[in-house]
Amino acid sequence: MARKASVGNEDLLARLGATFRRVGYDGASLAQLSEATGLKKASLYHRFPDGKEQMGLEVLQEAGRWLTRHVLEPLAGEGSPRERITAMASELDVFYQNGKQACLLNLLSSPIGIAGPFQTAIRDMLEAFVAALAAVAEEAGFTPTEARERAERLVALVQGGLVLARGLGSTDPFTRVLSRLPTELLGTDTAIA
Amino acid sequence: MARKASVGNEDLLARLGATFRRVGYDGASLAQLSEATGLKKASLYHRFPDGKEQMGLEVLQEAGRWLTRHVLEPLAGEGSPRERITAMASELDVFYQNGKQACLLNLLSSPIGIAGPFQTAIRDMLEAFVAALAAVAEEAGFTPTEARERAERLVALVQGGLVLARGLGSTDPFTRVLSRLPTELLGTDTAIA
DNA sequence: GTCTATAGGAAGATAGAC
DNA sequence: GTCTATCTTCCTATAGAC
Question: Mutating which of A159, A177, A188 best tests the B interface, going by the most B Cβ atoms within 10 A?
Answer without folding.
Answer: A159
